[in-house]
Predict the 3D structure of the following.
Amino acid sequence: MGQLFKKREREEDDTMRVIAQTQKCIASGTCVLTCPQVFEQRDEDGVVHVMDEHPSLALLARVRQAVELCPALVFRLEDEDETGELIVIEDPNAL
Ligand code: SF4
């Protein structure tokens, strides 16, 4: 029981894998305003582009906020057990 709690706490604190389903992006720019260290918009159409696929864990809260604020639900979260990393990648084919 205690071990389970510890694992869950670790996942929430230290680990997050974010998939940006860029086909869904409506180019609002919210993620860029929230976390410009990780996200930018393409010049040609304003669609999100992930600049840093392995951001510092110091940016975890900002990335989480960007994910929550996206009006088009572009971002999907996946847990990466025990990695202790923040990973942000693009999946342009996801609908
Ligand atoms: S907040 Fe969502 S819709 Fe707006 S630019 Fe970022 S990914 Fe696209």
About this structure: The longest helix spans residues 2-14. The chain has three helices and five strands. The chain has one domain: 2-90.
